[in-house]
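Morning!

As promised:
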Amino acid sequence: MTALLQIHEPGETPEPHAEERGIAIGIDLGTTNSVVAVVDGEQPEVLRDAHGDGLIPSVVALMQDGVIVGREAQDLRAKHPDRVVSSIKRLMGRGVHDVKALAGVLPYKIAASGDSVGMVRLEVAGRSVTPIEISAEILKAVKARAEQSLGQDVIKAVVTVPAYFDDAARSATKDAAKLAGLDVLRLVNEPTAAALAYGLDSGAEGVYAIYDLGGGTFDISLLRLQKGVFQVLATGGDSALGGDDFDHVLAERAIATSGLENLNEAGAAALLLAARAAKEQLTQQDRVKLTAEIGGKKIDVTISRREFEALIDSLVQRTVRACRQVLDDARITPKEIQGVVLVGGSTRVPLVRRRVEEFFGRAPLADIDPDEVVAVGAALQAKALTRGSDTLLLDVIPLSLGIETMGGIVEKVIDRNTPIPVAKAQDFTTYQDGQTGMLIHVVQGERETVDACRSLGRFELLGIPPMVAGAARIQVTFAVDADGLLTVSAMEKTTGIRAEIAVKPSYGLTDAEMADMLRDSLVHAREDMEQRLLIEARVEAERVLLALDAALAADGALLSEEERAAIDSAIAKLRQAIRGEERDLINAAVDGLDHATHAFAQRRMDRAVAQALKGHSLDEIEASMATDPAPGGGRTGRPGAAD
Amino acid sequence: MPTQADDTRAARAGFVSCWSCKGPVAAQALFCHTCGAIQPPTQLDHFRRLGLEPAFDVDLDVAEKRYLGFQRAIHPDRFASKPAKERAFAEAQAVALNQAYETLKDPLRRAAYLLKLNGIEASVSRDETVRDPELLMEAMEAREALMEATSLEKVEKLQAKAGADAIAILADLSKAFASDDLKAANRLATRLKYLRKYLDETRARRIALEQAEGTA
């Protein structure tokens, strides 16, 4: 009887097993600041430090005696510019080639590398480190804050990423979380998280635009909200545009007016800090002084808001152009937008608000702190994924995926803004007689030539039987999961030869590198792994027991007393094994139970088939009465049953 | 384990064996009615996956309602804390559902798919040049007109005409499918595809002209 009570409604997530019930946090891993929030009771809450500050600066200092993250790391920058790294998010998933274009603009030293391909590495404090490792340090600090606030271990998290992040940047983020000892339940797009924060609070319906201007990235997304479903209609943006660029133009102005020359690293860092302070004051004041002392020279430049706005207007206009493009993509006019949500600290700049208001023809929403709104949404989604929810996020892939064909032309396989998860197959063929191998080059982007898109990875399908050119049928399948991560597989159809890769080579960590880093970080020690496997075995055993309980409740009458007793004894054995600590015993008891219920399963199927055959004529009568086939239920669409 | 012959017999009766409780479950059910476990997707056409009869005229409101309702039940987010196997089934179901809805909600894709269900590889699904001489002529003339249109007004006129033509084709497509004239449907679908491409070109041309006027 209790067994019946335990059966859950289809789709409803049952209470997780006790050991799996750990709390899940929401993390906004930002370019400038990171924020962590959680839904412990009903309301989301941002986790703050002793001073009530919710922002953790995404700044990492690699000091001799350890790693320091956050405000303290920021304070160390002036003294140890070579040990402090900031804005690392801009390098996530980037290759050496991409970074060359940004040389001189970025506040870090790129490690010299003989390779022209592969992931970019930084030189910090004489060490060569990857952006993934730096991001992992930030996430460790975030995790530590959460654990301290909540007084318990935290493993599970929802981590947000810019909607415009490509596959390489997404997998880099997931790898960073893994290194920090976090189990990522889902990567969620930042604008989607922001809408989640607003949507739940106000019960809004209609199409909403989420304008997210952070420190280093700009995102614009259109979401349709209806009855608790959040559907991403389109996304766009610029992964290298943000408030940091405002600081840069202010700093450049200061350099130009004060005749400063040959700025060293410490000087540049100090000037950028002063520029940022000036920018922040300009949201309240009409005129500010940008002051700094650099290399013994005093800088004192007065800047009016009007001048500042003239300096940044072209940058802000770039965001407006991106908005127009996304609206065009979705075939929506600004008038059809129900509301505009502002996200990101840079949306505090008055010119930004003005331009957004001009474009959309309505005042934007900003009643949730734009720095915290994403983390709040991530926390709500973390709760939804662990404790169930009425809302549902339907996400899309932000950039088209394709493969290289003859002449460096991209053949698109999945168009951007296709809902995920998605899988698509496309056929390709050989172009030479007797060709036995085929190199598959996967790219992401909207342009038509391979050079103008991002290369995600290459893999080779070998062993194609020699045929005349054009005779082989190579089916390439692209599968994008709910996190937006891509797996590509290929098959030669006439022979069934397969090749499969999870796409992460070009700009990601290789599996070996990842394994090394995990070993170094000691977060997934051997005991943890054993413990995990034990928990998994218990969860699976519980599932088997629940399913069997349901089957016995429905069809138990098919068993003789003797047969039933044998099954009950196998159940008892499994229950006992679950209480123990031996994974092998649990698995053996599951096998034993499976064996004991063989005949039972067979009889259930037989009876159902017999009944169906007996009911055949009845079905036909029903069909001829043209009843509307109930979705998912019943046996609809049987051949011959259509009118 | 039930033998293969048993499986075939069950499948003919509209059943498969539930992977979790091993009992019978309707072939296209999302969940087992006995133990509640999510099932892997079975082979179903896109229409039946959304509980619709295969036809060009589809009530998109109904299709969307079903799509969202099924998504609510099987979206991978609902299974985020479940074992890998159930997560994989949820993902496979969501993939099948997305594919079905994406195909049906767009009239051109729906038409091509319907032709394919009827054994016709629609010319729109192949990326080849148009062979219909009448359409070829129409396309050439329309492109020429667009090239010669130098004012915003003229481009907008061409765009409006093409837009109206595209809408008119939908009605013709519906008629062609209703009367089982698949040959006509195939031709209309090709024409619709060309018109869409042409509409994209007029839009690009309009934007270019607008920008030119803006800077002048």
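Chain A touches chain B through 66 residues (CB under 8 Å).

Hope this helps with the figure draft.
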